[in-house]
Amino acid sequence: FSLFSFVSPALGSGILFTYPEIATIAGVQGVIVYALASALPMLIFGFVGPVIRRKCPEGFVLTEWTRQRYGMVAMLYLSFVTLVTLFLYMVSELSGVGQVINLLTGLDDLPVMIVQCVVTTIYTSFGGFKISFLTDTIQGAMVMGLVVVAAITIGVEVDIKRDLIEESGLLKASLVGWQLLYILPVAIFTNDFFLAQLWLRTFASKTDKDLMIGTSLATFAILCVIVLVGSTGLVAVWSASWPGDPAQAGSVAFFSLLDSLPSWVVGVVLVMVVCLSTSAFDSIQSAMVSTASNDLFRNRLNIWVTRGLVVVVIIPVVAIALQAPSILQIYLISDLVSAATVPVLCIGLSDRFYFWRGFEFVVGSLGGILTVWIFGAIYYDDPMKGAELLLLQQGLYSGDWGAFGAFVAAPVGGLVWGFGALALRLTYQYVMARVKGHRFDALDRPAADDDAPAPEDAEVIIQQGAVKSKASGRFF
């Protein structure tokens, strides 16, 4: 199983904005933390993937396991959140590639976005998952080679001013850097659960061993790429390429550095960006088609109709991408929702919590998001500021503890609301059992599944419409 099947969907053109920006603010500490936080969560699919594959051998997306474990309502809720996440990732990807092309060539970004959408739609429509996996391998290999070439060129061509290294303070630890040590692992670790394109690859792995090898190699490759890309922010500062006069935003530090390099390097970067963006975008498209087809229509709707609906969705994606705010902010909004949702979702993976149901999952997730608003309203003493915190309008670098508190409030609040919902449900069911004279059975362990667990090395076949659905789990 190709390691690039996991590398390419995890990277996109947005990395040229977000990682160098982190470097200009949190220095070496920020680059290392962000790189580790981005790469290590890939191991989730190597460790948790086999567990879910055994519990749901006929599935191919996480939401199918959610239906079997928590019921249809919980599955639809998670499907909605997943589709919203994929929508935001589409926006960030198109916004990223459009901005890169505009910055490097001066061309209008709208035609670039349209061409990319048309091209990826055509080849994913006819090739499906297989063509997406193939392009991941080709484009991933190209990106790795181009990153190496770009790194060597920067090392040879850029003149580092040694006096700026100490003056910049980027070698020192900072408050933001220490905050990121918690925020980024929580944000990225939980958000990866919503990336259906990675779950497709998890279920497509022939064996658990292949899956572990693929995710381990992908973790190392992603770590190397991100460290190299993030370091360009440091080099831009130390070579006086950034912030410039007038001062530029940290998100364009990488492109400020390119101004001091030979023109052929710009061409290399353009090729790399196109490869990154198309590979990430076609994976998102395939994931959106699969999620919508399986979750919303239960594979009863013609697949071409579903693909047509995804094309319709791309229209507002392009419109929003043209006006999109910071790419990092788009990611953070999605991360905050996942931080509230994933902890209460994963409780159901443990057999010890057999009594945990969909009601607790949904209430916990929504409660976690509500807790962020409550925290923001109290912290800023302003309900509107609390609402703005949900959108992280100040980003991660506001200089206060708002963003940090939000990423603490989301998972902790989700768990508190989830267990509160559990107590409420059990109380209601106990009272109803007493009133109706029935035996209280809400804490009875469910009957063992009649289906045998999937063999350790069983091949998982992904094919549209081939899912044999088990009965849904209990929501309440």
Biggest sheet, open or closed, and with what strands and sense? none
Secondary-structure class: mainly alpha
Count of distinct strands: 0
Distance between the termini: 39 Å
| Percentage beta strand | under 5%
Mean pLDDT, nearest integer? 86
Shape: globular
Stretches where pLDDT is under 50 for at least 5 consecutive residues are: 450-468
**What is the succession of H and E elements?**
HHHHHHHHHHHHHHHHH
Tally of separate helices: 17
Subcellular location: Membrane
Pfam families: SSF
Membrane topology: Multi-pass membrane protein
Keywords: Membrane, Transmembrane, Transmembrane helix, Transport
Short description:
By secondary structure, this protein is an all-alpha fold. Helix content is 73%, strand content 0%.
Overview of the molecule:
The chain is mostly helical. The protein contains 17 helices and no strands. The chain has helices at 4-10, 15-39, 43-55, 62-70, 72-105, 109-157, 162-168, 175-191, 196-204, 208-238, 253-258, 263-296, 303-322, 327-346, 358-379, 383-390, 402-436. The longest helix is centred in the first third of the chain and has 49 residues, at 109-157. InterPro entries: Na/Glc_symporter_sf (IPR038377), Na/solute_symporter (IPR001734), Sodium:Solute_Symporter (IPR050277). This is Urea transporter. It is a multi-pass membrane protein.
